[in-house]
Amino acid sequence: MKIATIIARVLLGLTFVAFGSNAFLHFLPMPPLPQGVTGEYLHAFFASGYVYVIGGLQFIAGLLLLIGRFVPLGLTILGAIIVNIWCFHILMAPEGVPPAIVVTVLELFLLWRYRAAFAGILRA
After folding, report:
1. Whose CA is closest to 60, among 70, 48, 47?
2. CA atoms of 94 and 123, how far apart (whole Å)
3. How many Cα neighbours within 13 Å face the side chain of 55?
4. How many CA atoms lie within 13 A of 111 on its CB side?
5. Predicted TM-score of the model (pTM)
6. Phi and psi torsions of 100, nearest 5°
7. What is the mean pLDDT for each group of 10 consecutive residues in the chain (124 residues)?
């Protein structure tokens, strides 16, 4: 189980380091913005500079997972980002749900493996 935890931590960390750094380095090609509400949302996301905040948080949280230090903090940051990913894809772009499922499964598995770190906030 320890090997599965390391694999999940590295996969999730690499995913968010790559996509977080893409906000700054633009190494993944960006298709043209779609029409409608999705395009308006993405335009505001990029024009406001909010993409840099989210990209920075993704990069830092992914790095925490890759390094293996402060993993619960990285999982907490990514938890909020993953909820926003789900909201975006459910409400505006359902075609992106499969990658959201993958990162959610990895996140939930890691939350379960690091559940002792979250015991204090889950006590009744």
Report:
1. 70
2. 35
3. 15
4. 13
5. 0.93
6. -65, -35
7. 96 98 95 93 96 98 97 97 97 94 98 94 76
